[in-house]
Amino acid sequence: MIYLDNSATTSTAPEVIERMEIIGREVYANPSSVHRPGQRARVALEDARDSIAAGLGAESREIVFTSGGTEANNHALKGYALTLFAEHGRWPAIITSSSEHHAILHPADFLARLGAPLISVDPDGEGRILPEALQRALEQAPRSPAPLVSVMHANNETGTINPIAELSAVAHAAGAVFHTDAVQSYGKIEWRAATLGADMISISAHKIHGPKGIGILYINKETEVEPLMHGGGQERNRRGGTESLQLAAGFAEASRLVLADIETTAERMASLTSLLRELLGEIDGVRFVTPIDGALPNIVNVTFEDAGRLDGEGLIVGMDIRGVAVSNGSACTSGSIQPSHVLSAIGLPPAQAKAAVRFSLSRYTTSSEIEQAVAALIDVLQVMRGG
Ligand code: PLP
């Protein structure tokens, strides 16, 4: 099977599996226990935290382990809103974009049902949130209590990168707090917490060849956020519950691996996506959804001018039958025949949104896999177009 669905999830790196096996076998005590096995577990947990923090250019105390990107996003939005509600008796405005992952859109909708003013910013035709669009949204939002802006770093369907440093500066100038979902950009392009300028950042391990079920929320030391899980005082009182040391160690190993050669991997992936673009460009009626500039090096999303004649689900199934795993939207919406909200937000007609095919590469993808994947797509289209 040729696996080109790495934006949905990645294979677990052998080094990560090995590290998790060792920790699982040897370091099983509760990191909160006072005895020596507990102390050893605490040291291993804090080593994992230190190494992830160093990769982000953050302080260890700014890292809260979560169960993944979804929890990190929920923690940022609900935790912030609850902190301000507890303080002021009023909900802060939530400003987000219509092209966010459901792990942002749904908690934002939930807060709106509780009474938080919710403002949505639309992306431009390339899927990008422009600083002036955010500025207009901030002008409509109640300023007190301080609003929360959440805009993703890179989109999971199109790969489009948002100008986060500029967006966070616009948000801060208006007195708002800024969160970014960096689940897709982490390990794909170089960034540090300080260069993004965000107060909170979500990342997840399973998109970088780490284990599923763990991520982090970076919370700048000046930002206060109520926990989602009240319980023991773990994670400096920000997430109750015995920590999963095995997953944390696996995440740290995956981060170490991916950050060690991020520049060369990004260059290699970019040359593979340019080969992919070149081969796809020869297909009749192809339309590139992913912009050529300002996108992640590992995502190419395409659709077709004659999408009305094509069956979107059939495209993915046809590729699968030919041994190629690709996706037509975020994994959370796959299996559904609704056009993706992201592709609709950037103005694609429903038929073209339904017929989109997303190729997402990993550090292990080869040029021969790219060639075989395009050959499979050409074959599926030929059958579907009746030729
Ligand atoms: N945010 C984005 C942009 C994603 O692509 C994903 C994963 O699909 C998530 C959040 C959710 O992350 P997790 O699967 O770790 O909960």
Helix content: 40-55%
Can you list the ligands bound to this structure?
A: pyridoxal-5'-phosphate
Low-confidence stretches: none
Order of helices and strands: EHHEHEHEHEHEHEEHHHEEHEHHEH
Distance between the termini: 26 Å
- Range of strand content: 5-15%
Number of helical stretches of at least 4 residues? 14
How many β-strand stretches?
12
Whole-angstrom Rg? 21 Å
Shape: globular
Strand order of the biggest β-sheet: 2-8-7-6-5-3-4
Largest sheet: 7 strands, mixed
Structural class: alpha/beta
Overall pLDDT: 96
Describe the fold and architecture.
With 387 residues, the protein is of the alpha/beta class. The protein is 43% helix and 12% strand. The chain is built from 14 helices and 12 strands. Strands 2-8-7-6-5-3-4 form a 7-stranded mixed β-sheet, sandwiched between helices. It has a 3-stranded antiparallel β-sheet with strand order 9-10-12. Helix 1 packs antiparallel against helix 9, helix 2 (36-56) runs parallel beside helix 9 (245-260) and helix 5 packs parallel to helix 6. It is globular, with a radius of gyration of 21 Å. The relative contact order is 0.16. The model has no long low-confidence stretch (mean pLDDT 96). Pyridoxal-5'-phosphate binds next to helix 3.
